[in-house]
């Protein structure tokens, strides 16, 4: 069972239990090792592990089924969908300068920084490392003062010592890495997906719990092909949209 759920789970009784359980299982499913079995434990076993009722567990599993992460079969059990490790990403080609420009133009508050355990779902980007250095920031619109997004960057320990926290109040992390820390950036991969606001995101962005947000993951690689930064940014759904321009589409067969 430890492949799919942490050994110890503390639930906040003031928040919907089904939501907390579904998010915990979701993270475990997406971060599971390739050799992990696809069959989940029974509803009763999972309910006992999380300390919730079977009815609550069924509601959590229903949420994961709606997302397409699992499938449930009568008498056979509940199974992780083989393609559930990660969705097919939308890839956008552009320059590092374009990404820096997109990250600029807002007031930034540094929420904190320091070493943290590497999350299981990001372990592939930090092979052999148990810890990375986290930098957390909250951005606000300069005109209205409203929060627009909050970001956490996980930086490779060898690079983190060259990142000055105060610099992040003046410029985005990509620019700090390139211009201040001397990282020769070779590429950045971006993934954007829709999610529901968890308790921390709802508090920081001043939105209702479970309201829609845009979740961005950006992985920055240096010239050696090593991931030096994994950025996870949570955008308010009512303040941002995602636009992609595709050129030379004469060979595209469907849309």
What fraction, in percent, of the residue positions are helical? 10-25%
Amount of beta strand: 25-35%
Biggest beta sheet attributes: 6 strands, antiparallel
Quick check: average pLDDT? 81
CATH class term of the largest domain: Alpha Beta
How many domains? The number is: 2
| Strands ordered across the widest β-sheet | 3-4-5-8-7-6
Report on the structure:
β1 (70-73) and β2 (77-80) form a beta hairpin. The radius of gyration is 20 Å and the shape is globular. It has helices at 17-30, 43-50, 54-67, 96-103, 157-160, 173-180, 199-205, and strands spanning 70-73, 77-80, 107-117, 131-140, 147-155, 185-196, 212-222, 227-236. Helices cover 25% and strands 28% of the residues. The strands form two sheets. The chain has a six-stranded antiparallel β-sheet with strand order 3-4-5-8-7-6. A two-stranded antiparallel ribbon has the order 1-2. It folds into two domains: 17-80, Winged helix-like DNA-binding domain superfamily/Winged helix DNA-binding domain (Arc Repressor Mutant, subunit A, Orthogonal Bundle); 96-236, Chorismate lyase-like (Chorismate lyase, 3-Layer(aba) Sandwich), CATH 3.40.1410. It has seven helices and eight strands; from the N terminus they run αααββαβββααβαββ. With 255 residues, the protein is of the alpha+beta class.
